[in-house]
TrEMBL record:
Signal peptide: none
Domain of life: Bacteria
Pfam families from the UniProt entry: BPL_C, BPL_LplA_LipB, HTH_11
Organism annotation: Anaerobacillus isosaccharinicus
Role played: Acts both as a biotin--[acetyl-CoA-carboxylase] ligase and a repressor.
Catalyzed reactions: biotin + L-lysyl-[protein] + ATP = N(6)-biotinyl-L-lysyl-[protein] + AMP + diphosphate + H(+)
EC number: 6.3.4.15
Family stated for the protein in its record: Belongs to the biotin--protein ligase family.
UniProt GO BP: protein lipoylation; regulation of DNA-templated transcription
Keyword Ligase: yes
Protein name: Bifunctional ligase/repressor BirA
Residues of the DNA-binding region: 19-38
Gene Ontology cellular component terms for the protein in this record: cytoplasm
Length: 319
């Protein structure tokens, strides 16, 4: 509904369109129209409303369409094929579908809005329209399935480098999949796989980056941040995405040629988890202790108070 409204307003190219015309077109009440307009404003659109004239868009947030993403992109295969959708449930779902249909390596699915964006363990990922980078990347690496989590760490390094290049901001990594800026979550990474026990068909890497949000919903407002909040200015999403894809391709090729070790060192340079007292909550239990480091496979080593070292493959970390 909102994207239909947006298309209608944009087609007017700055001319007013009456509330009545909109409600007829969308088949909803004037109150519903007003609510959708408010949503657009929250997403960064400046919509002027004048009694008896109607609504018009006087400023639109920067866009992340296929053309913008591909224009000037210097990668060989990452992002050469871009699938752009304005509004989807989750880019991960589309990526899984087209990966099984034979999509080529490096295909990127990106959406302006996700209505059912997901994190790990089915948790929600808040992905409002027009303000973030919500993307999934399809890879087909010839590596054993147990090495796939290393790609999460590789992605974190690529994202941090891309963000630094475009904004000058220095981010931190919280093992395994969070990128923090000034202690708040800026980026979430979700790595999923289509594989047999001994062979990967596809790895789908979901990356969610808060770029131009000014505020967050109640549930996450204390823990989340955006590039705009931290930098104090609006950031061009397509440029950030391009830098990340360039960085990703370089690191991915290094990984395929030389393995995880060089990536591990880069990852460690940004990691704030290591050397700290942490609590690791897994699905089954919760362990406290010191984070000693990660193994060459990217597994977190946690030493508890009795000196026992635990290998943590997947968990939520609290400091
Ligand atoms: C993640 O999960 O951090 C992985 C998020 C991956 C999102 C991308 S977007 C493109 C692709 N398509 C998808 O559907 N997903 C991927 P996890 O570690 O489980 O963190 C989820 C938790 O982060 C939630 O329970 C909230 O507490 C918090 N959260 C939700 N939305 C957020 C946001 N926009 N910014 C910061 N924190 C958020």
């Amino acid at each position: 509904m909102r994207s239909k409204l947006l298309q209608m307003l944009m087609a007017q190219q700055g001319k007013f369109v009456s509330g009545e015309a909109i409600s007829n077109y969308l088949g909803c009440s004037r109150t519903a129209v007003w609510k959708h307009i408010e949503e657009l404003r929250k997403a960064g659109y400046k919509v002027e409303a004048i009694p008896r004239k109607g609504y018009r868009v006087i400023h639109q947030p920067n866009l992340l369409t296929k053309n913008e993403i591909k224009a000037g992109l210097t990668t060989k295969y990452i992002g050469k094929n871009v699938v752009y959708e304005q509004s989807v449930s989750s880019t991960q779902e589309i990526a899984h579908r087209i990966a099984s249909d034979g999509a080529e390596e490096g295909t990127v699915i990106v959406a302006d809005e996700q209505l059912g964006g997901k994190g790990r363990l089915g948790r929600p990922w808040f992905s409002p329209i027009g303000s973030g980078i919500w993307m999934s990347l399809i890879l087909k690496p010839k590596i054993p399935p147990q090495q796939a989590p290393q790609l999460t760490l590789l992605t974190a390094v690529a994202v941090i480098r891309g963000i630094k290049e475009q904004t000058g901001l220095h981010c931190d990594i919280k093992w395994p999949n969070d990128i923090l800026l000034n202690g708040k979550k800026l980026v979430g990474i979700l790595t999923e796989m289509q594989a047999d026990p001994d062979q990967i068909h596809s790895v789908i890497i979901g990356i969610g980056i808060n770029v131009n949000q000014d505020f967050f919903p109640e549930e996450i407002k204390e823990i989340a941040t955006s590039l705009k909040i931290e930098k104090g200015e609006e950031i061009n999403r397509a440029s950030v995405m391009q830098s990340i894809m360039v960085q990703f391709e370089q690191l991915y090729e290094l990984f395929l040629d030389e393995g995880f070790l060089p990536i591990k060192h880069m990852w460690e340079a940004h990691a704030i988890t290591i050397g700290r007292r942490i609590t690791a909550r897994t699905i089954t239990n919760s362990i406290q202790g010191y984070a000693k480091g990660i193994t060459d496979d990217g597994v977190l080593l946690l030493e508890d108070d009795l000196g026992t070292i635990h290998k943590i493959y997947s968990a939520d970390i609290e400091f």
